[in-house]
Design brief:
The structure holds 2 protein chains of 2 kinds. Chain A is of the alpha+beta class. Chain A is built from 15 helices and 16 strands. An 11-stranded mixed sheet of chain B has the order 1-3-2-4-6-5-10-11-9-7-8, with helices on both faces. Classes of the chains: A alpha+beta, B alpha/beta.
């Protein structure tokens, strides 16, 4: 297959649930995991006569998102009804925004694995309410309306991405920004951050877009990349074998690792959008906008700059440590305890992240707490243990979640800093290696390292390295 | 003492003088319903025990009645309002058996101020109709002539008050559904300014046009209900935050004011001669009161009917999507899959006229037709609003007959929807412009059927509307009663 001849064009649509106390148009709790159909009222179950009222907090979070994504905010926007029948849509329509969304024309800059940065455009962000959930059982379908009316923003990107990696990075950056600004919880498994992808391919160098296929409801970063990868290859293969790409909606089957047809274009709905007559125009005054902007939480970009300055970190280190809000928070807590930014950065990035990645775990379920890691670093700084021993201790901490001090105590790993004790060890080594001692005395000073190494081995690595060095030199030269 | 045709004012005076208690009044009204309504079919549900229980709590409060401006007032509520514990069918089979889980703001406010709900009353299905013949629960008959319709869609609300089965009633008006039946039954009916009364808890037909309003015997009674019921509701985002005047206070001071009434002769062409005569003599009464009549131009009102029948069905097609057999209400017994569950529940549960409007609206909103129909209709709607804005630079009210004819016979217009739609030719533009409109009786035709006079006010101009109507009412004198009530109280 000649994949190189083709270029893919990818645009993403992300649905992000907003972290409000209550739903978009009623006062029911916006809460995941409650018993089915308990967070409901006449409004979100679509009882006759019920009317929607806009949740101000949802608008605030939406505006926050627009600011964070460098979007333009429209002081006047319009809610619209999207009409379709589905059992988990109790009103028979979803309240959304259509012709006049509250925000358009933004962008984010993402870092690619090549080290380059790429700017991805954002076409629009609009408000809408979530639908309920249908659970299909063998005996029938059960509808849970707890999710019905949960506030969402839909963030539509420009078709600016050219491969699965770019799409993955865009999604990660977006996720991070929404988490940082306390806009969206970002839990993909609970469905509060969901992604659809529009994918087409075209011959490199051509302008015209190919026929696009929509990939629906992909529920992890990993699947997004895999699904896009698969879909690109499927489309190229189809074209190469003389087939025509059909405009359709497909879904990712994570069991089979393939995309499958959900519906053809002919089955597409006519949603009959029209302005929601139960709601006035959404007005975002400049004073309100300024207020929201003033109260913006720190964004990843800002955190990165702050980390660079406050902890004297490199560009790269700061960007890794601020790549997610949890990680940044973890790191800051470690520094706060141990007061050593550089060491904290090294330990978090090299030891902790390395092991987490290897174990396929996230910072959220680290077995080593912030204080535990900080205590370990403090022990190195105070000379209680050496850096090398610390690595052994950390390994144990990661495996058992025990404190450094108890591991050090149990295994007898405390650093030997008693000069008398070390001196007797060094004397023993010198006595045991008379020929090397003679060579040293004859001028082969390089052998200093040999004696230090032997002594360290004798103490099972527990000797204070600086003190040991000093003692070896003193005794050899005396 | 006979009860039935008393006004709110009269009942309050009787309570104050301790001539009777709420239970006595309510019992009598319930008796009227059980005796007279068999012929009318205006009530769809009564709950005598609930109603009397409520009346008894009021009996105990009689010494504090001054804090309750609607103390012990029997109220009938159109069956498209939700009242907790009562049914709400909106005249449709698709909602048969549906019990309201909450109470509409308007009803809640009236009950809090002493009103007693005596029953839920019949209406055209989903408030679509001008004769009350589209109810799934049978037509309502006009107390003035049982062979004739009471008007619609709030036909049960008008018949109930006209027949002395309730002192006042609530209706909804989307294109004339309060004013036209008020006219056909010889009552005062008000469609307030859009946003004046909360729509929370009324079954939506066309959200941008629907308004709640009262039926009563007098303008004062209408003003009393309105001052209790109006005002901002945090549960209805389209309700207005404007303060609500004490409407009755202005009427009590008996202050005389003169007004300029605007008449568009072109608009009035084609009304029945009896109606035209009665309208002109009402204008004479206004002139005698010192009012001035000016000729105005409403060039776009001729498009009101077609505009209305694009906008209202479009909104209805969406508002009525929730009656799908999935969550509540009627569900077909014969569905084999979810597609059939939808199509059959709706097919079997929804009546012909409502289906017609759903299809019309669905079409008007469809891709490729939206611009030509829905969007264009909204542009014309704006033009109609501008017509009125311009007219109000020349006059205080625009006036017209409420309906081009008096009550017609059952079945007379059922085969011709367009003929039926023309019943609302004078009321539709008022909803499109969002203005307040009041209908009050101004005479009887040769068959002794009531004729209605409509005053259209400026936005939120209800206070002036009441004042002008009240003055006319006093100049006119007591209005006649339907023959079935002759000799009754």
């Amino acid at each position: 297959m000649s994949l190189e001849k083709y270029e893919s064009v990818i645009g993403l649509e992300v649905h992000a649930q907003l972290m409000t106390q209550s739903k978009m148009f009623c006062r029911c709790p916006n809460q995941f995991g409650s018993s089915p159909n308990t967070n409901v009222c006449p409004v979100c179950t679509g009882q006759p006569g019920s009317l929607p009222v806009i949740n101000k907090k949802a608008i605030e979070l939406g505006v926050r998102a627009a600011v964070a994504l460098s979007c333009e905010i429209h002081p006047e926007s319009v809610f619209a009804r999207k009409n379709y029948f589905y059992p988990d849509l109790p009103k028979g329509y979803q309240i959304s925004q259509y012709e006049r969304p509250y925000s358009t024309q933004g962008h984010i800059v993402v870092r690619l694995k090549s080290g380059d940065e790429k700017r991805i455009g954002i076409t629009r962000i609009h408000f809408e309410e979530d639908a309920g959930k249908s659970n299909h059982e063998s005996y029938g379908t059960l509808v849970n309306l707890n999710r019905a009316g949960v506030p969402l923003i839909e963030i539509v990107s420009e078709p600016d991405m050219r491969n699965a990696h770019e799409a993955g990075q865009y999604l990660r950056a977006l996720h991070s920004i929404l988490r940082y600004a306390d806009i969206c919880d970002g839990n993909m498994e609970e469905g509060n951050f969901r992604c659809d992808a529009n994918i087409s391919v075209r011959l490199r160098g051509t302008e015209k877009f190919g026929t696009k296929v929509e990939l629906k409801n992909i529920n992890s970063f990993k699947f997004v990349e895999k699904a896009i990868e698969y879909e690109i290859q499927r489309q190229v293969f189809a074209i190469e074998s003389g087939e025509k790409i059909i405009q359709q909606t497909r879904s990712w089957n994570s069991g089979k690792n393939v995309t499958e047809v959900m519906r053809e274009k002919e089955q597409a709905h006519d949603y009959r959008y029209f302005p929601e007559p139960d709601l006035p125009k959404l007005m975002i005054s400049s004073t309100w906008f300024e207020q929201i902007k003033k109260e913006m939480p720190e964004l990843p970009k800002e955190a990165c700059e702050r980390f660079k300055k406050a902890f004297e970190l490199s560009d790269y280190d700061a960007s890794v440590l601020t790549s997610s809000k949890e990680l940044a928070k973890y790191f800051e807590a470690v520094v706060a305890h141990c007061k050593n930014g550089k060491a904290s950065a090294n330990w978090v990035m090299n030891e902790l992240l390395g092991r987490l990645n290897a174990a396929g775990r996230e910072i959220g379920d680290t077995p080593v707490s912030e204080t535990q890691l900080a205590e370990l670093i403090k022990k190195i700084d105070s000379g209680e243990i050496s850096g090398k021993i610390a690595k052994t201790v950390f390994e144990e901490m990661f495996a058992t979640s025990k404190d450094a001090s108890s591991i050090i105590k149990d295994k007898g790993l405390v650093q030997i800093s008693d000069p008398a004790a070390l001196e007797s060890v060094v004397r023993k080594i010198i006595e045991g290696n008379p020929s090397q001692f003679a060579e040293y005395k004859a001028g082969k000073v390089k052998l200093l390292g040999f004696f230090v190494g032997q002594a360290m081995k004798e103490t099972k690595g527990q000797a204070n390295p600086a003190l040991l060095n000093e003692l070896v030199k003193k005794l050899l030269d005396s | 003492m006979e009860f039935g045709t008393q006004t709110i004012q009269e009942l309050l005076a009787g309570y104050r003088a301790k001539n009777f208690k709420p239970t006595e009044v309510v019992e009598k009204y319930l008796k009227n319903i059980s005796e007279r309504d068999e012929k009318l079919n205006s009530f769809l549900q009564v709950r005598p025990e609930e109603t009397l229980k409520r009346a008894r709590t009021l009996d105990a409060q009689i010494d504090n009645m001054s804090t309750l401006p609607l103390f012990g007032i029997p109220l009938a509520v159109k069956d498209n309002f939700l009242v907790n514990g009562w049914q709400a069918t909106a005249g449709s089979k698709v909602l048969s058996g549906y019990i309201s889980p909450y109470t509409a703001t308007s009803v809640e406010r009236l009950e809090a101020m002493g009103a007693v709900v005596v029953g839920k009353v019949n209406c055209d299905e989903f408030a679509m109709g001008s004769s009350n013949e589209n109810s799934a629960f049978g037509p309502v008959r006009n107390p003035w002539d049982l062979e004739r319709v009471p008007g619609g869609s709030s036909g049960g609300s008008s018949a109930a008050v006209a027949a002395g089965l309730a002192t006042v009633s609530l209706g909804t008006d989307t294109g004339g559904s309060i004013r036209q039946p008020a006219s056909l039954c010889g009552l005062v009916g008000l469609k307030p300014t859009y946003g004046r009364v909360s729509r929370y808890g009324i079954v939506s037909y066309a959200s941008s046009l629907d308004q709640v309003g009262p039926f009563s015997r007098t303008v004062w009674d209408s003003a009393r209900v309105m001052e209790v019921m109006s005002g901002f509701d945090p549960r209805d985002a389209t309700s207005s935050k404007r303060s609500v005047p004490k409407f009755t206070e202005e009427l009590n001071t008996n202050s005389k004011r003169t007004f300029k009434l605007g008449v568009s002769r072109a608009w009035l062409e084609g009304v029945d001669s009896d109606v035209a005569k009665s309208f002109d003599s009402a204008l004479e009464v206004f002139k005698k009161m010192g009012c001035e009549i000016v000729e105005i131009d409403l060039p776009h009102t001729k498009y009101a009917l077609s505009t209305y029948y694009l906008i209202a069905p479009s909104e209805a097609s969406s508002n009525l999507a929730r009656y799908d057999g999935v969550h509540y209400g009627y569900r077909t017994q014969s569905a084999k899959n979810s597609e059939e569950l939808y199509s059959r529940s709706r097919g079997e549960g929804i009546g012909r006229e409502v289906k017609l409007r759903i299809m019309l609206g669905t079409y008007a909103l469809s891709a490729g037709y939206y611009d030509a129909f829905y969007l264009k209709a909204n542009q014309v709607r704006r033009k109609i609003q501008e017509d009125f804005e311009k007219a109000f630079t020349q006059c205080d009210f625009v006036v017209s007959p409420t309906s081009p004819s008096t009550a017609f016979k059952l079945g007379e217009k059922t085969d011709d929807p367009l003929k039926m739609y023309l019943s609302d030719i004078f009321t539709l533009p008022v909803n499109l412009a969002g203005l307040p409109g009041l209908s009050m009786p101004c005479g009887l035709d040769s068959r002794n059927l009531p004729i209605g006079f409509q005053l259209i006010g400026k936005p939120f101009g209800e206070a002036e509307l009441f004042l002008a109507s009240h003055q006319y009412e006093q100049a006119r004198g007591q209005f006649a009663l339907p023959s079935m009530l002759k000799g009754k109280g």
